[in-house]
Each structure stands twice: as C-alpha cells, then as structure tokens.
Queue: 2 jobs
Job 1
Amino acid sequence: MPSVLTQFVAELAAGTLKVVDLTQPLGPDTPVIGLPPIFASSPGMTIEQISHYDDKGPAWYWNTIRLGEHTGTHFDAPVHWVTGKDLADNTTDTIPARRFIGPACVIDVVQQCAENPDFLLTPEHIQDWELAHGPIPTGAWVLMRTDWSKRQGANFLNVGEDGPHAPGLHRAASELLVARDVLGVGVETVGTDAGQAGSFEPPFPNHHIMHGAGKFGLASLCNLDQLPPTGAIVIAAPLKIVGGSGSPLRVLAICPA
Ligand code: 23J
Ligand code: MN
C-alpha cells in the first residue's frame, strides 16, 4: 500500500495539492505593534550588510538582522504572557515540534470587519462555523480571515486618536477555542488581540486566556483567502530561540488545488 507521504509528494508534483504561503515579507518597512508609551516598544527590523562579494567577503553576501521576536508574521509562545510563564514546554525551543502542524479551520469574518474595524469574534460565530463545517478538531490551527492583510500603509495598524482599531476575539471565543483544545489562533492583524484590547478586562484577553492554557498565536498572516474553510494543513514552526517568547517564521498551508 502506498504511504500517505508517497501520495503527498506525488500530489504536490501533480499539482492536485498546492502550497499557500501565509507569510508577509519581512523587512525594515514591516509594521510593528504600538503599545501605550508607558510600556517598552519592540523594535522593527534593521538589516545591515556584512559583505557583498567585496573586500569584506569576495565570494559571499550576507547580512546581520536585528528585530523584536514579535515582528511581522510571527509565532507567540505561551511564555510570552504572564499567565503562561510557569507552564511546561512554554518557550520556542521546548515546544514539541509535533505541535507546530495541524489542520486549519478558517473562519471568514471579512464582511463583519469591513463594517466594523473593532469586530470581535464571539462563541456564536464559532458555533455557526461548526454547524456549517463540522466541529473544530483537537489540535487545529483556527485562522480568523478578516482580509486585514490587504490593508496598505497606515490603514493596517489603523491607529486613531484613541489608539489602534483592528478586529480580534471576544474573551469567550478564546475560552471556547481552549475548550476545543486547539493548537492556537492565527490572525491577519499585527497581534492576536483586538486593537482596543489593552482596555478590555482582562487586558489583551486572547493572549491572557490562550497562553495561560498553553496555546499559541500566529500574527500578521496573509493569503487566508486562498484557503478552504477546512481541508488545509498548516505548518508553523518558530525559530528554536533558547527561552524565546516567539519568533518570526514562515507559515505554510497545504491544501487541495
Ligand atoms: C505585547 C503586548 C500586547 C500585545 C502584544 C505584545 C502582541 O500582540 C504580540 O505580538 O504578542 S497585543
Ligand atoms: Mn506576538
């Protein structure tokens, strides 16, 4: 009997399976989250040349990079939040690699977010999705499709007089996803909490609840519009930073073409 992996590479070669890159380009122009000025901010990316086939290295080109762990398309580990600080295997280097791969459940809330940039996903939205597509399986990546990644320039962070306005999850939705024992939640916005979530109770409820339960986050995803609601698998493996709270990463989905 042919192994599922034999069939997998055959289907990739035949084009009946496709690879969708859910990753934003990473560079000096990559937007970073803005927090209230009383808190320390995370630096965006800087890139500096070491050599470029020149006196500093005649046959080689390479760069030095500097950036906050939570820059661009990135992974949030449970240790990122105080609620997850004492959990086992809560850092980028200790999470078992098995937990980086899971089936994707893509919840489309594009319309709601077009009408209201402060839209919050609720348990009702998740339950409606489950009625249409079946229960969210254990170990799933739940991806919130907002089309926010299509926003250009300042409209992405969407900062107003009263702070950022971007969609997120109601705390009860995060609690339901924990009850479903997901791997974590992925979003198209700069962080896995709503723009206004600093003033929610608790502050940043999705981080508070998900990381407290040992679950992960994926931020600044794109191309979710190329995924089916179910039937894709997602591979999201952060750099093995020792004691890391997260890392930029390449997020890949594989689904029927
Ligand atoms: C620190 C404080 C609040 C937030 C975040 C980080 C993130 O979104 C992040 O990148 O983890 S909301
Ligand atoms: Mn983060």
Job 2
Amino acid sequence: MGKGKVYKIGVIPGDGVGPEIISAGLEVLKSAAKRFSFSLETINYDFGGERYLRTGETLPDSAIEEFKKLDAIYLGAIGHPDVKPGILEKGILLKIRFELDQYINLRPVKLYPGVWTPLKDKGPQDIDYVVVRENTEGAYCGIGGTFKKGSQDEIATQLDINTRKGVERCVRYAFELAKKRNKKKTVTCVDKANVLTFSGDLWRRTCQDVQKEYPEIKLDYAFVDATCMWMVKNPEWFDVLVTNNMFGDIITDLAAITQGGLGVAAGGNINPHGVSMFEPIHGSAPKYTGKNVICPIATIAAGGMMLETLGEKEAAECIEKAICKALSEGHIKSLEAGKMGMGTSEVGTLIAKFVSEI
Ligand code: IPM
Ligand code: MN
C-alpha cells in the first residue's frame, strides 16, 4: 500500500459474459484507484474459447511466465459452448491456479443487506462465513486414466491426492483467517471422514496439529453432506470452513445461492507469497452474452478482494460499502439476469460513482 503505487494487473475477460462483467469491474476499480491515489496498469489477455477455436491454443507456458511478473490477475469467466467441457477449464483456469500455486480458493459467503435469500427467516447477520477451499490438489490434480475404454469392461480412475504440505498450508490459512476475522473464532473442517477415512484422517490430524498454534480458535468437524444441510438450516453456526478442492467447489455453489445467487458470489485464487487471481464464481453464461443483463456485482466484489490482497484495505472496504449501498437502497431490483432494473454497465457505473462519493 502507499500513495502513487502502480499495480500491474493481468486482465482475462474470457468467454461469454466475461468481457461485460470485467468492464463493469474495471470501472469500479479505476474509481477506487482515483479516490485512494494508486493506479492500475492493466494488461489484457484474450485467452478463452474464441482464441482456442481460432488457434488451438489454450494458455501457452510463456503466458504463465508473464503472469509471474504481475501483481494480480482479474478474470471474467472461462467456458464456451462449442468447446468440449474440460479443455478450457483445465487448459486455462486450472493451469493458472496450479502453475501459480494459488493454493487457496477463498470464497466469502455474505448476504448483503437488501438481498433476497431463499433461506427462511435468515438475514445478513446469519449468513457471513468464508469457505477456504484447497485449490491445487485433491480430485482436481488430473491423475487417473481409462482402461478398455468404450468396452463393457471399461475402467476409469480419478485420484484424489491429499498431501500433508497441501493440506497444512490450507488449514493454516484458515486458522489465520479465523483469527483475523475475530468473529466466532471457529474453523470447521469439512470432510467425509466417515467414508474417505484416509484423506479424512489426514485433514483432521492436520487441523488438530495446526490448532495447537491457535489456542484461541475453536476447531469443529462436519461431514460434507451434513454441512450442506446446516448451510441451509443454520448458516449462522459457521465462521471459517476449510475443505478439499472438490467439496469446496460443490458447497460454494450452494453457499452462493444462500447469499442471493451467483450474481454476488466472488472468489479469490490466492497464493499468499505470489500472484493471485480474482474472479466471480459463476461461469460464462453464454446465453446472456452481449445482452448487458448479467449482474456484475460478483466481479466487482472480486475486484475488492483483489485490492484487499494487494494491501489497499481502505479501497477494498470502500468497494464493499458501495456494493452494500447499491443493494440496500434498492437501486438494484434483483440479482437475476435481466431482472436488475438496469444493465450490467449501469450497475458498474452506479457502484463506481458510490466508490467516489462514500
Ligand atoms: C469454480 C468452477 C471451476 C472449478 C470449473 C470451471 C473448473 O466451477 O471455480 O468453482 O470446478 O473449480
Ligand atoms: Mn464451481
């Protein structure tokens, strides 16, 4: 942090609605930069489905080397209806997460005031927790294969890799976060230790070991299936949840809908010692492409997380306040695509204006 600081941000708008939401997000970020006297040097990258269809290239290794010189990456969405599932996800998104060792996928679950939740009798005071999802291993490591493919004897394997190092750094991040949040001071280890006994045991023992360094933080355990139920029934029980890559992916879509939907759910792919990447957790929503109807708040909030990680705390808080103002004062009617009562770009402009004024 500091006045006059210049941050080099790699921008990957990506596919579908990605460019629209990123442009709204950048408008807000620029407004914050102006107000808090720092600047953003953005470098645009056209990685995504269109480029892949044109050139056959997903993400070259040279881009990873360039990314290593950035301060952060701001990503819209990756996914194209004409590209077979897995190619872009693995070739771009997961490649960045893995190669830049962004070992934390940080997903705050926060119901903003004025936002409708499908959870009965729950309000902003009840839905405020963070999922710390392990982001570089587990079932996502891409180890496995097929045998006798296409035959009746076909076999498919997909390994779930859990390393002590990978689990421990993730768990430690979760404890640090619970301490920093200073709310319920609880870390809940979400696993399936009653069936996945080997990985479950590693996660639980690691949590117990790390907890010794954080006597003020309580450690809880919850099975992932039961967690889904409690996220709906008693979200107020949670503070910081820590879990593996696959479980974290699944529960954060459920969590997103409890906070009003994918239109507001933001995420950070964090390497605390390297280059992190920020994105809305929703996909490229191809059917809404170019229609200026999708809610950009998730992307704007992801931009806020980016500033927070860069050390621009005040600017991050200001973005958060501006989002709250836009939502609580009823400027935005709904977070659903096409029902906002204004366009994607107008929401960006409104929040950018609030950022300059609040
Ligand atoms: C997410 C997404 C990705 C994931 C996909 C697009 C690979 O669902 O960020 O949650 O599974 O991690
Ligand atoms: Mn997901």
